[in-house]
Amino acid sequence: MTEKEKYLQIRKEAMWTGITLVVLILFWIAAGFGLAGTEVKLFGLPIWAVGGTIGVWLFAMVLVKVLTTIIFKDFPLDEAGEEDRP
Questions:
Q1: Would you say 44 and 35 are in contact if contact means Cβ atoms under 8 Å apart?
Q2: First-to-last CA distance in the chain?
Q3: How many CA atoms lie within 13 A of 67 on its CB side?
């Protein structure tokens, strides 16, 4: 992988991580505040409390799995030949 390809991959990963953060924040707003008007309870707690905490946590894990499976690539950051140095 050339230096330019590495740079472009790092930019791609950073961009998608930022997009994922924005999606997660929007989900948190929808799950927490969007469900606040409902009277549904889950485990004795209002659904907005469960959705705004546990739901966001589970959704974040799904998004991280998608990022690490589809977007992220494993590659050495050092230059070729440096791994032979003591």
A1: no
A2: 23
A3: 20
How far apart are the C-alpha atoms of 46 and 2, rounded to whole Å?
52
52: exposed, middle or buried (Cβ count in 10 Å: 0-12, 13-18, 19+): buried
pLDDT tens readout for residues 29-64: 998 888 888 888 988 989 899 889 999 999 999 999
Q: Does the pTM of the predicted model rise above 0.90?
A: no
DSSP per residue over the chain, as a string?
--HHHHHHHHHHHHHHHHHHHHHHHHHHHHHHTTTTT---EETTEEHHHHIIIIIHHHHHHHHHHHIIIII-----SSPTTGGG--
Q: How far is residue 21's CA from residue 15's CA, in Å, rounded to a whole number?
A: 10
